[in-house]
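Morning. Coffee machine broken again, so started the prediction first thing and wrote up yesterday's gels while waiting. Chain of 624 residues, entered below exactly as on the submission form.
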Amino acid sequence: MKTEDCGSQLSSGKREDFRTYTLHSEESFSSLGPSRAMPFLGSFLSEEQFQCSICLDIFDNPVSTPCGHSFCMACIGHYWQGSRLCQCPLCKESFKKKPELHINRTLREITEQFKQMKGEAGACGGSGRLGSSLEERPLQQGTLPGDLFLRMKQRIANRLSADYNLHNGIQSASLGEKATDGRDSDGSRSQEFARKVSLRRFTLSGAADARKVPRCPRHHHHKLDLYCKSDGECICSECSDTDHQSHNVISVEKEWLSSKMQIGMTETKMQEMIEQRLSKIEEIKILLAEIKMSAEKETQGSMRVFGALLNSIERGQAELLEVIEMSRRSAEHQAEVMIRELDLELAELRKRSAVLASLVQTDDCISGLRSYTNLNTPVPVKDWAGVSVHCDFSGTKAIYSSVCQLLQNFREELQRLHETCLPALIDQSPLKQQPKVKRIQEYAVDINLDPNTAHPRLILSEDRKTVRCSDKNQLVPRNPERFDRVVCVLGQEGFTSGRYYWEVEVGGKTDWDLGVASRSINRKGKITVNPSNGYWFLSLRDKTKYAFRTEPSTTIPVNLKPQKIGVFVDYEKGQVSFYNVEAKVHIYTFSDTFTEAIYPFFSPCTNKSGKNDAPLTITPVLTD
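Came back before lunch.
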């Protein structure tokens, strides 16, 4: 209620009381009795102060959130219903755990008191004349606690005094000097202040700025309190009557309430996306830590094996060098002994040669013959013709044999390391790459969808590579091959032997079925899908639930969500295998016995109100 409206219905004496109250200090306000303070308070309490911001009605069993805002218990409960993240509808503060809300008894009592005051004011014949109806009614015992009323008086007086001082640009002291008589020296300034005060709203915690509704740029005397949904703009009542007569026009409050709920839902989805990505980051970090640990373990294992090999080789090399050195030293010793013997023989031979040379020069026959007879004895010399120096390296043969055996043992150790350690390390990581995926790509076949088997709701592309589900049945001929209950379609080519592989794009879908089915399956009415009835396929439900359709279903844990599924069929072995193509990860293999022709099976499932509208697409198989 505006102050001008109150002033128009109050007597001049009551206006004097109002102006005196707004200009006096807290002591002047406290000096007013309940009979005079209560009408003033009622003149400033409007229905807006007791409205729930969700239902825009007066509080019913009000509750307060931890952030301090109040709502009806039923309204806030309905607002949080089905939401994973609880937020305040006004300040958008998020609560990790849903708060346990209890009725604010004080606020409920004040609300009930306000309802009674409003009803009594209406009974007096003045809609909104709350101050007039309460002036003659004394404050009853128990309706509003006295201490609470005093606190409200003090807070309102403090806020009014501060706002008035700020508006006029003067200090409290000068204000007291100018307002000692209870009146403002400047009447226009007082009226302006009273108008601004009327736009203020008061709560138990003090004054707060009221909603400032802008004026219409075309009709300046009207507020922009309506919203045209047809043109998407805020308008006033006169605009609605002139330019928007046939348009969908509602109040701004209702449109903003609807928009806030939509914003809340969008923000909740954003929070879920943020949580998913944070979870994915944590998952990648965990995988990276596991890969790091695996790499360290692998490094330690390889260092151990190669270290042992290097130690053995170094040890064998040292033994080999030692044997070679010993053989060389033995040969040197033999040569030195032979050289000494030869030197002795050379000395003896040179001595006799000198004696014989001197004997040839003598002319004494007798003396020469005697000397020659003594020198004619054979010289004790050795036959060196067959003597030689040899080096025996036969000891190295044993060392070489030992090294060869060491290399053989090392080769066997590497083989065991490859068969045990390396596969185990690869299996621990969801990012493993299985060479089998590369081999099965060699069995890729060109699959086309059979329109004669497609459910009436399915729409096939012209190249028969894509299938999606529509909202209504298509005009298609009825034939015995067509499914009329299960939303699925078969491939046009069947298999009776051999191996086959194809890939299907499933990204963006929340539900799908892929696999193979027998030729003689039941295609009419309700169908039980399991291997005993001729169906072998993998299913996805609700984005994360993967299962193979057995009886009961076999849950398949999938760490990485596949964007493309590879299907491999080995007819002779009776195997149907499924792969995550991008990650090159095997998902599941089912073994059975095929007794007749089998066909590729595709089901995009229903749209689920557009959530599962993405198609299934058969894509070309790319080989590395």
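The chain is about 45% helix and 15% strand. Going to sketch it on the whiteboard this afternoon.
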